[in-house]
Structures are given as C-alpha cells and as structure tokens.
Amino acid sequence: MPHHPGLLRTAPLQGETTSSLICRIANRYGMDPKVLRSCWHWRNYQPGHDGGGARADAEVLLNTPGRQILAGLCGVEEGVLARALPSWEQQDTKLTSEEDGVPAAAWRIGGAVAGPVAFGCRLCTARRTGTAVRVVRYAPRWERACVRHGRWLLDADANQPLEHLDLRGLPEVVAAQRRWASVARRAVRAGAEPERVFALAQAVVARWWEQALQWERETIWPRRLHQVAGGDAGGDLERWRIVGRDAVVFPEVVAVADALLDPAMAELVWADSGAGRPRALPGEGMFCRRLGERLGRGWLRPLAATDHGGPLIAWMGSVIRLGRGAGGPPGYDNDPWWLRQEHQSATMAGQLRVLGKEKKAPGSGTMWRAAVPAEQRRLITSAVDSAEEQLLQLRGVQIGPTAEVARRLLRGLGHSAGLIENAWKRTAVAAVNGGVPLGEVARWVDMPVEVLSQILTAGRQENGG
Prior knowledge:
Elements: H1 18-29, H2 33-37, E1 41-42, E2 58-62, H3 64-74, H4 78-84, E3 104-109, H5 111-114, E4 117-119, H6 122-129, E5 136-138, E6 145-146, E7 151-153, E8 164-166, H7 171-189, H8 194-211, H9 220-228, H10 237-243, H11 245-260, H12 263-272, H13 286-294, H14 301-305, H15 311-324, H16 348-360, H17 366-371, H18 374-395, H19 402-433, H20 438-445, H21 449-462
Parallel strand pairs: 1-3
Antiparallel strand pairs: 2-3, 4-5, 6-7, 7-8
C-alpha cells in the first residue's frame, strides 16, 4: 500500500466528508474502498439503512495516527485537510483509549457530526479533479442548487438512488439560490441568524406544500414538480412529492424569508392586530394580502391568515407581543425566529421511511399519524401516555386476593383501552377534517367506510363537534 505523500495526490473538496475522500482515494488507486479502509483499525460497523445497503452519509472519525495515514494516502498536508474536512478534528470516545501509534477509525452518521449532508455535483467534481465520481459533502439546505450546472443536490441520508434533480427548465430556482445570499446578509444586519430565518421560512412553506393538494388555484408547484420528475410525476406522485419538495418550493422559501425580514411587513402585522387596540387577526389582513402578492399568489391571503397553529401565525404572534412590550424576559415566546419542534418540516429521509413502511404494511398507522396536524398529535400523545401510565401502575399492584387483583386489572385495562379508543377517534376525525378522504382512512384502519363513518359521527357528537 503506497503511503508516500504526493504519490497520487487527491485533494479534498471543501466541506467533503472524510468517508467520501477515502472513497475517492480508493478510486484514484483503482481499488475497492473496503480494501483501502483496511489501513485503519475499525472500532464499530459501518452504518446502513434499515432495509440494507450502506448509507451514503456515513462519516469517518480518525485518531491522530489515523489522520496521518490519510494525509499520506492523499498526498496532502494535514493542515489542508483540517480546513477542508469538517469532521477532521472531531473526537469519538471509541478512539480515546487507543494504543500509541495504532491508526484507528470509527463510523458515525454525518448529520450527527457537522450538520446536513448532501451529494456533490459530479460535474463540478470533474471540473475540479478531472474525474466525475460521487462526492458527499456537508451543505446547509440553502446551498443545494448548483448554479453552474442547473442541478438540485439531494440529501445523502435518504435511502433513494438519485443524487440530484435537473433544474435546467426551472431558472427561478437557480435565481432563488443567487438571491439567498442577499437575504442572508439582510438577516445578519437585522441581528437574526440566517439559518434560523431559513428554517422558519421553510417550515411555513412546507406546511403550505402539504395543504396544496387541495388548492385548485395552485399551478406553479405542480408544473415544477413534473419538471424535476423528468416530465411527469404522476406515475409515482407520493414519492416525487417527497423527493422534489425542497427544490420545487425553494423560490417561495427565499421569498418568505425575505418578507419576514422586512420591517414594513412587520408593521402590517402590527396594524392587523389593532396596534394599540388589540383585536383578533382578521382573515383578510393586510400582511397576508401583501405576502400573497410577493409570492405571486394573491389568492393565498385567506388560506395563510386562517392557518391557526402553524409557524406563520406563531411568527406573527411574536411580532405582536414584541410590539406591545408584552413578551416578558428573553425566550421563545417573544423570539420571532423560534421554531417549535412540532412546526419543523419533515426531512426527505423521514418521509421516505414513512412511505416505505406504509407500502410494506398498509394500515400500520404510520401514515395516519403523519397526516394529522401537530396540535392533534399532542392530544393523541397525551392520551396514549396516560394509558401507558395506567399500565405501569398496574404492574406495581401488590399481590393480593386473586379476585381483587383481577378486578383492579380489568378496571385499569378498561380505562386504558378507553383512552386509546379516544385517541383513535381524535386521530381519525382530525385526518378526515384535514382533508384525508374517508375511504383512505378506512383503508388504513381496515374497516368498512360505513362503519367508520358511524364511529366518526359519534366521536364528533361526544366532543361537541
């Protein structure tokens, strides 16, 4: 094995994972990466997907001798590697007790090391290195469009074969990538962290994306989705809506981020709230009207204004509290850029896992839970937690007369079953009210539509709805 610096020089790419660099070195030497990895003593197993296959976002951490080996193999100084590879100086407990001089390595998942991981553009790689091989690198979600080659670079943590989507027919997505730089600078000037502004804007637009199937006047997103799918997403619409979402909605995410940073837009929120004379936010408010205009969707105003429980209304509430000086001490309630956990947009990998499970076991309930709004999920979780607590209490019942133990057991189980049944009813009602067809819900729970309809009607009556 050649260890001499400079024998076959393989320079790292900025932000590349160490694992990706090792694979490129192996390619340069014309060998399988597994053979090259035998240079290190591995302290755990390479992470893989649930259904098998190695994860593209797998990352490698090295101890000091291990880093020296890698520097020799690629013929690059360690200082250069330290500046290019985000994981270079990351530590791992599996590597702290190694014998002196033993080159050791440990596997990790890239997202847990230095942030989101995406595929690199092979054309850019070929331009830099002369070889169009796969590269995996750390890249924030606002830097996924390759402006030079018109490609959207996909997350590397999902179990799907595509590395990029073709943007050559969508110049507005590439233009949004260029525009983001100025939006980020605007955020810094406003004292906000660009990544938090982007996360909030993405959460707002991702929530609209989930609702947009019922928006008859939405024509922009379907056109883009078919474009990134190669002309027609209809053959596998569910999967393409997951894989293509971030690319399709990126222009709107940048536009929303820009709008939320605009002091004039915050003034409209303040005016809509009644300013010095507090009132409920109107469904035809000036802020949502102007937001719809900035997005090229004048019809969006009432839909955005009445989406109670969503991240946009939460942002508006923070702006209003700050205006009234009623926010209290610094904290999430008066921080406009605070993104609640339930509002965070689902990742492509997470959504594909849900879709895969549902296809393997229809009616498993996974998609059912995902279809219910976050505020309803909290009610369900609370009910289920209460049921679990009842069962735990039953486990602690001291042994007594058999009949008494049986009675207590049946009472507890009956109460727990009631809680779970109530949670089931809430979920089904919320799914139907949220736009999921009754027939689809019936298929999930393996029940005739007529019977489910009767149960839902009774559930609504019990809850006064």
